[in-house]
From TrEMBL:
<dbReference type="InterPro" id="IPR025449">
    <property type="entry name" value="JetB"/>
</dbReference>
<dbReference type="Pfam" id="PF13835">
    <property type="entry name" value="DUF4194"/>
</dbReference>
<protein>
    <submittedName>
        <fullName>DUF4194 domain-containing protein</fullName>
    </submittedName>
</protein>
């Protein structure tokens, strides 16, 4: 096995990094290539991503033993894992689902402006404004519930929060390109049709297993 041949030649630090990236992938589904400094907006590279890309074959071989598949999107800069048996999927609640879809709408609106990275920066104010405008949630969510939903999306490396847990309207949210794998163009068009035709949050698919999110 290529994995064993490579692994026995690893240094102790490389073995530790191998174990780390496996755990990150299985726990968070995604690993992104770049991160944004909240103060300078500069982009730095993620060591974990480059290790995964370098040893993609070995990691894939190891993961397949337990029914997991590794994929790397070099264009948008992220790695992801999926269960080959279709199990172990994360179920999002209604608020998490609404936020995810609205963030995908914002990402699509700003894609043409992207230059050096595939990251879109928005704010809690813009997010909440669109939720209210499109009437995708039956009431204004409490800040505690909104914070919990955002933390869930952060945990799965779908967003970053540049101002920590600050819940003010100008608190910045970085939408990561991993959102493209969860909400493809077809799902986005379905949401846009729903907004135009009904403005009814009850028609939005919620509380279901999110394909691509483990």
């Amino acid at each position: 096995m290529k994995f064993l041949e490579t692994y026995v030649g690893f240094s102790e630090s490389e073995k530790e990094l191998f174990a780390k990236v496996i755990n990150v992938l299985l726990s968070h589904t995604f690993v992104v290539r770049d991160s944004i400094n909240p103060k300078t907006y500069s982009i730095s590279t993620n060591r974990d991503f480059h290790f995964i890309a370098r040893y993609q074959d070995e990691i894939q071989e190891y993961l397949l033993l337990s029914g997991w598949k590794l994929e790397i999107d070099e264009v948008y800069g992220f790695c992801s894992v999926s269960n080959t048996f279709g199990s172990q999927r994360k179920t999002l609640d209604k608020l998490e689902t609404v936020i995810l879809y609205v963030l995908r709408l914002i990402y699509e609106e700003d894609r043409e402006k992207l230059q050096l990275s595939h990251y879109v920066i928005t704010s809690i104010g813009e997010l909440m404004g669109k939720i209210e405008l499109f009437r995708l949630y039956e009431k204004i969510p409490k800040k505690t519930h909104l914070n919990e939903a955002l933390q869930t999306l952060k945990y799965y490396h779908i967003i970053e929060r540049m101002d920590g847990n600050d819940m003010s309207e100008d608190s910045r949210i970085v939408i990561l390109p991993t959102i493209l794998q969860l909400i493809n163009n077809e799902k986005l068009r379905n949401l846009e049709s729903l907004i135009i035709e009904s403005n009814d949050a009850e028609d939005l698919s919620v509380g279901e297993e999110m394909e691509g999110l483990q």
